[in-house]
What does this fold into?
Amino acid sequence: VCVRAGLAKAITLIESELPSDKPFADALLGKCIPCSEGAIFIGVTGVPGVGKSTLLNVMGMELIHAGHRVAVLAIDPSSARTKGSIMGDKTRMDELSQHPNAFVRPSPTSGILGGVSRRTREACILCAAAGYDHIFIETVGVGQNELEIDQLADITLLLLLAGAGDELQGIKRGIMEAADVMAINKVDGENLRTGSQAAAQLRNALALLPPRDSGSRAQVFTCSALEKEQVQALTDHLQLLHANLHEKGVIAARRKKRMVNWMAQRIHDSLLAQLNNVKVREHITEIEQHVFAGQLNPINAADQVLEFMRTNPEIPRAEPE
Amino acid sequence: VCVRAGLAKAITLIESELPSDKPFADALLGKCIPCSEGAIFIGVTGVPGVGKSTLLNVMGMELIHAGHRVAVLAIDPSSARTKGSIMGDKTRMDELSQHPNAFVRPSPTSGILGGVSRRTREACILCAAAGYDHIFIETVGVGQNELEIDQLADITLLLLLAGAGDELQGIKRGIMEAADVMAINKVDGENLRTGSQAAAQLRNALALLPPRDSGSRAQVFTCSALEKEQVQALTDHLQLLHANLHEKGVIAARRKKRMVNWMAQRIHDSLLAQLNNVKVREHITEIEQHVFAGQLNPINAADQVLEFMRTNPEIPRAEPE
It folds into this structure.
């Protein structure tokens, strides 16, 4: 509990938008990076309703019983309108989140600034440094996020549903290509037959794709998180695959790419953080009134704001402080 | 055909990353904004496989037969790895895209810079100025995009599939709240009963949500795009709703918000465009080598790049030129 409380506070610090918190957050992260290398980072992606949380609850408890410490960071595409979190389904990780050897945290995405990955990436580092050896990053894998998940994790698991061709058709090629392992979930009861059919279909489809950077193609599993069927086999495979890719140097290569990507993201965020300057914000608010009144088009309005930023030397150029 | 070719070239111009194209693109957009006000902008969202393209093909042809000119801009979350477009399903709009009174174009999202909405927003303006009176913006509505679609369109249609509770559970509250109209598609043959059940269930769920800014809740339709069943009713409702919201001033209010949002996006894009400067790019490449070699952590690396940008006055401060 003590580690968890400290970790939660550390994550709150790195998530802070306050310029005065930034030096502390950066120093903490710098210290934690070298201590994070021993952990296994696993991305879990799939459409809403596919059973990611239920699976992670079962998988996490199995790992804990085998002596591991498990963290789950769930990327939560919050509703911009309600400003609320929509992860009511975190109750599906009740058992895991209450276990002292687990740490479960939704990682809200905060609109335009920063986006999905920076905060989650940094939270992962802190979790690993805090001694969690299996870090799961859970994300909705439709749209843009799937492109980000393999920039966050060492290996990626794509969860799918059995069923008609629709579900398979819905899988975008980008997600297929980013997955190291695939599992068809909810293969229980009446779905046993359609589940194994879907698995066969998927294996055929995968054979047509180029192999990943690891040189091999994703293995396809069927499981039922609800019935706790075949989850252990999936967990074993994930661990084995990670060990195998680690030995081959693939994990190290992916991590290096992640570090370069992280740098690029911090540069982006800092450039945009100039917009948080009080004077700039006041100017934008004023210009917005003219746009809202229809007196100024958005193109000229943006140019005026940029000109203001350029000609006011007291505004920090590329730093939030 | 002549209008279409010119429009396609104009869109290519505004999509250009070349600094020398920017003044022309901006001038063109500035001219087009006042001419775009007569068009109806309709967002169409839903998970992959729900039948958005098939529906738009039918809906578009119906509108054309009623004397309208129809544009469809499809936001395409491209695979970052293959760099290729995954809109093979654009063949589902074959009939529409070949009609002289239609203009169909995928609007690729280009990774981090700009994101989904700027280019699509600007392409919409050009389509409207070119005389298309119904502009549809098609997007995958899971994840972040749903938050953007109501910043692009006057009204938003959410397409759903009938079926078990899974699909409904998968709808995030943010999407529900952003939709002005909902339609359950593929309600044909064996799905007729489950379709009307799903519609009833959805109406009950909607009653629990706050009404939109229009003061009313989304109406729920069932249809079959494949069988062309009930699509006309849906089209009629969309037109009627738009006229109604226009009269109430809701459309004007939403458009003003879009303009302010557009301005903010152009400011963001310009700030990030500094990274395209040749000297900055060279410096980043150099620093990346150190990160890749493990000699420098991403935090310190980003700070070094920002410091370089700050201390080199010849680098334009907030302009791509």
User: Anything to note?
Assistant: The longest helix of chain B spans residues 250-273.
